[in-house]
Amino acid sequence: MPRISVEVDGVTYEDEVEPRLLLVHYLRDRLGKVGTPIGCDTTNCGACTVLLDGMSVKSCSLLAVQADGREITTVEGIGLDGRHHPMQRAFHEEHALQCGYCTPGMIMASIDLLRENADPSDEEIREGLEGNLCRCTGYQNIVRAVRSAAAEMRTPSENPSESEVTS
Amino acid sequence: MTALGEARPAEVGAPRRRSEDARLITGRTRWTDNIQPQGTLHVAFLRSPVAHARIERVDAEQARRRPGVVAVLTGADVAGEQGSLPCAWPVTEDMKHPDHPPMAVDEVRYVGEPVACVVARDRYAAVDALEEIDVDYAPLPAVVDMERAVRGEDGLVHEGLGTNESYRWVFENGDLDAAMRDAPVVIERRFVQQRLIPTAMEPRAVLCVPEGEEFTLYSATQIPHILRLMLAVVTEIPEHRIRVVAPDVGGGFGSKLQVYGEEVLCLLLARRLGRPVKWTESRSEGNMAVHHGRDQIQRLTLAADRDGRIRGLKVDLLADMGAYLMLVTPGIPILGAFMFNGIYKMDAYSFTCRGVFTTKTPTDAYRGAGRPEATFGIERMMDELAAELGMDPIEVRRRNWIEHGEFPYETIAGLTYDSGNYEAATERALELFGYDRLRAEQAERRERRDPVQLGIGVSTFTEMCGLAPSRVLGSLSYGAGGWEHASVRVLPSGKVEVVTGTSPHGQGHATAWAQITADRLGVPFEDVKVLHGDTAISPKGMDTYGSRSLAVGGIAVYGACDKVIDKARRVAAHLLEAAEEDLEFADGRFSVRGVPEEGRTIQEVATAAFAAHDLPDGLEPSLDAETTFDPENFSFPHGTHLCATEVDTETGMVRIRSYVAVDDIGKVVNPLIVEGQVHGGLAQGIAQALYEEAVYDAEGNLTTTTMADYLVPSAADLPDFTTDRTETPATSNPLGVKGVGEAGTIASTPAVVNAIVDALRPYGVRDVPMPCSPERVWRALREARGEEAEERGAEPGAGGGLGSAQAGGDQ
Ligand code: FES
Ligand code: FES
């Protein structure tokens, strides 16, 4: 079995994996990173979106071996410093989630969207998230959330005491 | 803590951000598939690749020998213990209800029906082994078309029944013949409610953990309480030895209101093997095996006077049950019987529904369940009537709807609508929409023969929700009541736990129920925790579906709070040495009337009730109470939705230009959650109008098994919505709430289709079948032109009202 070395959310893992093991199953079943869910088996829904070297990918469309030597960020690896990522906060503030199943994928895809375009129009947000399906929200609040996160990320607040999400 | 005498801002009505979100945005979730006890085995199902066949032989020897495989079981192996999946709604006494084994034993009746299962060390090994199972199928005729099926033309789905008609259900009120006789206007239409796949984003998953003779079954279900009872009935494992947990559930929309074979089989496998077993559905198997929704053929006849007043309505339905009756399959179209009359007055009404077996996936509840189908029928007919009379569709509705002053109103379908104000919602919607301006633009585009035509669609609707009154459900032969349970306990430290029988999957109950409790008990929102979805924690309940949670479950929470306050009052009176009648309770504090400084907070009372050193005689320690709520009546949200579409007559492309939804859902607990529900509902209803359809070929193969084929709309496919509310409180519950989960879905489908047809009416188009894909729109245009050309004896393309635009479709 091939050996791989992957950095996931800041931790390096050395593992032997079956060549056909999907990255998403590696993350979930081997590393216990269950924050990334699976919604389909045809790479259509985007629920499994993670960042691979900073760029969003659908982790069900990659094999674990393809991640060898690379860096992966999941929803569990953002906002690690005890504060939520601005995108997480925006999803909460704008009520951009209901069941939340699509949410990790949406958040990761949205972060990548803003990396490419820091000030997207609503239409660009809608186009940019085309590969991520949500069955609950009708998308309007997701668009709002991405817009508001974009505004916040363009002008990082001076004062790091942003409100925390209640739990 | 607020200072004495300072009122706490009300929670109910405030757009409180959801407490659920914290774990959902960080991935600290408990989806069933995330739970994996040590030693969990994985199950995979072999599913029928053919629509209808006798199973001649199943050879699983090879599969059993594969590495990692622990067990392979066929339907025959479990025939003695698997029971028959339940149908809890025998709508007529003579309803045909065939046996429904969780795993097929000697015959398969739809593509995707489980035939065998493999239990293995991991999911890859389980799926690998499926390929080694050999099944000989002796083909039987596929029965795909409902209209042919009911006439028995393609053979029988269940040979032993001698018919494909499961039941015939009839409702009549008023003299329909008289109403129709000599009516100046009679319109007949046939509408198809296409088959839909609910497509919750979380696929189903089941994990069953055995502990001796006891079983904990985790399932992505909407109905842990009902599921537990039904699992006990089906498997004969005693109910008290089964615990069902619905952990985080990623959407349901009715699809998880079910007792699925896979749940039964996981329980049986865990019992046989004595180890935890888990099954997680793939999307492609889910599309075949999750129950589908809608799938009706409606024949409607509407008789009216020339001034637009409706005389009578006749509804003839064929409803596709699929191959078997599942939990509430036969009842879904019957719910429509009460809604086909919509918000309108009429003299006579007749409704007949025939439930038809086909060799397709069973149908059952899908968001709105029976009411979207009915609303579509009547709202399309209202537009057809308007067109026939050359009247504005809003005006036709005005002439027929129940007026604000007429409530409570007993409808022709026998329901009593408690309250409503259709005028107010409609006025507000027209204003937000800019109705007159858009009509002017439409006229202008028609005038200039713009290839892109503007259409305006309206839908004024109501629905029955708050599915409860147990007596009414009983009168409809539904197998259970519709009450809901809640308990509230103020912990010794003064924090509050609320236990609810509802089982949310995205609706935000933890937040909304805490808002109700915080207001009622006068405690901080943060001090309240809501527990749900686990039969060991929440012992009673009827779960979440049909927009019942707030109007029934939320009211139970409210009622339990009241009981807690009653008990607390007795303790407080005792502690303050005052008479109960002399105590006031406000902002979480009991005080002696006229002596505000003499008081006890409810937290202090809880501590005293816990210590129990000094309680009134006969009072039990601790401050808690439970209650059930069973309302007298349904609740009836209503609203007016308006949609403007731009339809390209050359390509058939439809674009929603604007969408306005004004809903009246009575009092609102959390406007943020409400708006989210409306948005999501609209997306689903619009998706039915424009995108989604479960398609079967002539052999009964489902051709939309993946998300590539079954078109769930993305952000790029949907518009921004304008939403607003009017507020006419329900009178059937103390909070005046009605329910919101399904309104958007129910109202939007006819609004969109009405708008498309309105755009194309000058071309002679009177209907476009759903989903109104560009191809279908284009075809409808072409057919309308062809028909017109024939009627006029002219060349195709020469007739019709809009010459230049008409040339478009033929290229
Ligand atoms: S699970 Fe990866 S795209 Fe659907
Ligand atoms: S929030 Fe449920 S799928 Fe997006």
From TrEMBL, chain A:
- Pathways involved: Alkaloid degradation; nicotine degradation
The protein's organism comes out as Actinomadura viridis
Q: What is its EC number?
A: 1.2.7.4
Please give the InterPro entries that the UniProt record associates with this protein.
2Fe-2S-bd (IPR002888), 2Fe-2S-bd_dom_sf (IPR036884), 2Fe-2S_ferredoxin-like_sf (IPR036010), 2Fe-2S_ferredoxin-type (IPR001041), Beta-grasp_dom_sf (IPR012675), Diverse_Oxidoreductases (IPR051452)
Q: Which GO terms describe its molecular function?
A: 2 iron, 2 sulfur cluster binding; anaerobic carbon-monoxide dehydrogenase activity; metal ion binding
Leader sequence range is: none
Please give the name of this protein.
Carbon-monoxide dehydrogenase small subunit
Q: Which Pfam families match?
A: Fer2, Fer2_2
What residues does the 2Fe-2S ferredoxin-type domain cover?
Answer: 2-78
In terms of domain of life, where is this protein from? Bacteria
Q: Which UniProt keywords apply?
A: 2Fe-2S, Iron, Iron-sulfur, Metal-binding, Oxidoreductase
Automatic annotation (TrEMBL), chain B:
Q: Record's SMART domains?
A: Ald_Xan_dh_C (SM01008)
Q: Where are the annotated segments for Disordered?
A: 783-811
Protein source organism:
Actinomadura viridis
| UniProt keyword terms in alphabetical order | Molybdenum, Oxidoreductase
Family annotation (SUPFAM superfamilies) = CO dehydrogenase molybdoprotein N-domain-like (SSF54665), Molybdenum cofactor-binding domain (SSF56003)
- Top-rank EC class of the record's enzyme: oxidoreductase
Residue ranges annotated for the Aldehyde oxidase/xanthine dehydrogenase a/b hammerhead domain, each copy included: 26-141
Q: What is this protein called?
A: Carbon-monoxide dehydrogenase large subunit
Record EC number:
1.2.7.4
Per its UniProt record, what Gene3D superfamilies does this chain match? Aldehyde oxidase/xanthine dehydrogenase, a/b hammerhead, Aldehyde oxidase/xanthine dehydrogenase, molybdopterin binding domain
Q: Which Pfam families does the record cross-reference, listed alphabetically? A: Ald_Xan_dh_C, MoCoBD_1, MoCoBD_2
Q: What segments bear the compositional bias annotation Basic and acidic residues?
A: 783-794
What cofactor does this protein call for?
Answer: Mo-molybdopterin cytosine dinucleotide
Gene Ontology molecular-function annotations: anaerobic carbon-monoxide dehydrogenase activity; iron ion binding
**InterPro entries for the chain:** Ald_Oxase/Xan_DH_a/b (IPR000674), Ald_Oxase/Xan_DH_a/b_sf (IPR036856), Ald_Oxase/xanthine_DH-like (IPR016208), AldOxase/xan_DH_MoCoBD1 (IPR008274), AldOxase/xan_DH_MoCoBD2 (IPR046867), AldOxase/xan_DH_Mopterin-bd_sf (IPR037165)
